[in-house]
Design a protein that fits this description.
With about 325 residues, the protein is an alpha/beta fold. The protein contains 3 helices and 19 strands. Strand 1 and strand 2 form a beta hairpin. The longest helix is centred in the first third of the chain and has 26 residues. The chain is elongated and about 80 Å long. The structure holds 2-acetamido-2-deoxy-beta-D-glucopyranose (6 copies). One 2-acetamido-2-deoxy-beta-D-glucopyranose (NAG) binds next to loops.
Length: about 325
């Protein structure tokens, strides 16, 4: 074979190879340039973050960047997950320039400071927002209520203060504001009108006070954690055997109500009402609960026999100590 013939075969092979590789490029080059530019700005705003090491200008953000998920048809960025940095300073406001985001997670950046960025309001397609484990301070802004299809809001373990805004109602029904410095009462409008079974509210470890809204009586909490606050008054109306609650924690408050008429949701697996001023007796209906693994009623003002038989488990006496006159197993027998 002549050299020129070899050369032309080589040429045509190269053309095939080139067109193959460019079609591969076409398949892969899906990251929209404006999104890539925005993400690179966000990356520089976050400084060092182990989760952003794969965010490189010469690769496709939809396929190679950790924590970035694009829509499979439109290649718009719909999910963003940024974790673990030692960056100090505020969340970069360019976070608001990804208008198609449905989920945003910013987790574990203990040296991030400043307020929640105003630009979050531009993310009108957001369904779930989690910003946790930072030193972000200031209040929870009303503007978050303008995110009309947001249903899950986790702002736990930051340094947020002030009151819970009165504008959350309707769509947001999974709320975690635990481990902050929030003050004031629970707004009456919170969760109002939500009819589903999957309501979750976690306000653990804040400085919240006052009574809890009576509108909670119509809600079906799956998980309710109000522990380690200064709540007072009645909470009996959140209970009831026909509710779907799985976990209820009211511990370490100043709740003061009669427990005698309270019946317990049948699927309950955790009930902690310890360290309050709750009085009355424990309703026999508690013996119908099959899954109640964790029970703590210690340090209240309860009285009367601890129900036994049925599904009642052999709880440790630490579940009942520190009451006024509870008696029977695992405490000493009742003296009739
Ligand atoms: C990324 O690459 C493009 C094209 O190669 C270039 O125009 C742009 O300036 C780069 N951006 C950064 C932040 O390096
Ligand atoms: C946060 O900043 C402080 C002081 O600059 C530093 O000592 C600490 O290690 C930083 N935290 C993290 C997780 O990097
Ligand atoms: C953040 O952590 C990385 C990796 O441990 C380190 O290289 C960098 O110097 C740290 N930056 C600051 C500001 O502490
Ligand atoms: C929390 O915020 C308060 C101001 O509201 C500030 O004084 C305090 O230093 C902050 N704590 C942390 C750990 O950032
Ligand atoms: C709420 O946030 C705390 C702290 O970040 C976390 O430990 C807990 O699992 C969260 N609870 C729910 C129900 O999401
Ligand atoms: C709540 O859940 C139960 C069973 O999980 C279901 O039968 C019921 O229809 C649900 N109710 C609502 C209002 O979603």
């Amino acid at each position: 074979m002549s050299n020129s013939k070899l050369f032309s075969i080589f040429l045509s092979l190269s053309v095939v190879a080139l067109s193959l590789s460019s079609s591969v490029q076409l398949v892969r080059a899906q990251c929209r340039p404006e999104d890539k530019a925005t993400l690179l700005k966000i990356k520089s705003g976050f400084g060092y973050s182990s989760s952003l090491a794969t965010w490189k200008n010469d690769t496709d953000c939809c396929f190679f960047w950790d924590g970035v998920i694009c829509d499979v048809f439109t290649y718009k960025i719909i999910y963003l997950w940024i974790t673990n940095s030692n960056t100090s300073g505020p969340i970069p406001s360019t976070i608001g320039d990804l208008p198609d985001l449905r989920r945003l997670n910013i987790l574990n950046h203990p040296n991030l400071t400043g307020p929640l960025p105003r630009s979050l309001t531009k993310l009108t397609n957001l369904e779930r927002l989690a910003i946790t484990g930072t030193s972000l301070s200031g209040s929870i802004p009303n503007m978050l209520c303008s995110l009309s299809i947001l249903y899950s809001l986790d702002l736990s373990a930051n340094n947020l203060s002030g009151r819970i805004p009165g504008c959350f109602s309707g769509s947001v029904h999974i709320i975690n504001f635990s481990d902050n410095q929030l003050t004031g009462r629970i707004p009456r409008s919170l969760l109002r009108g939500y009819g589903g079974n999957d309501t979750e509210l976690n306000l653990r470890n804040n400085h919240l006070a006052g009574t809890i809204p009576e509108s909670f009586s119509t809600l079906n909490f799956q998980n309710l954690d109000l522990s380690e606050n200064y709540f007072v008054g009645d909470a009996s109306f959140i209970f009831g055997r026909s509710k779907f609650s799985v976990q209820i924690d009211l511990s370490n408050n100043r709740f003061n109500f009669d427990l005698s008429p309270v019946t317990y949701p049948m699927f309950l697996n955790l009930l902690d009402i310890s360290h309050n001023k709750i009085r009355g007796r424990i309703n026999e209906q508690i013996t119908e609960l099959q899954g109640l693994g964790v029970l703590d009623m210690s340090y209240n003002r309860l009285c009367g026999p601890i129900p036994s038989g049925g599904m009642m488990r052999p709880y440790d006496k630490s579940s009942f100590v520190g009451n006024k006159c509870l008696c029977g197993t695992p405490l000493p027998p009742c003296t009739a």
